[in-house]
Amino acid sequence: MSFTGGKLKLKHDNDVSGGVKKKKKKKRDKSLMTPSEGRDQDGEGGETAPAESKQEIDVRTEAEKKHDEMLAKREEELIRKMAEKSHKDKIKEMNDYLSKLSEHYDIPRVGPG
């Protein structure tokens, strides 16, 4: 094993020459800030580059477009289906389903008695 020499430095030691010093917070100078940081603090919303916002090129393949379209369609149908039934209707349907199931925990009687 390797050990480093010297005594353990503690914060509460009265010895000023050694020990661990407390870190102080640094104040930021506004002139050194980047423009994006300055905008966030000042509340100014700057313009984005015009080339980015004018036109977005869709680089997806036809299959990817079709897949996304079908997912959106399924999600829309699911939302519509969920909105049709009230909570009361859902509970009634669940109870009907459970009543039709066989009771697996019920031990069948075998033999006399």
TrEMBL record:
Residues 53-69 have a biased composition (Basic and acidic residues). InterPro entries: FAM32A. Transmembrane segments: none annotated. Residues 1-69 are annotated as: Disordered. One of its GO terms (cellular component) is nucleolus. Residues 20-29 have a biased composition (Basic residues). This is Protein FAM32A. It comes from Tetraselmis sp. GSL018. The lineage of its organism: Eukaryota, Viridiplantae, Chlorophyta, core chlorophytes, Chlorodendrophyceae. The gene is FAM32A.
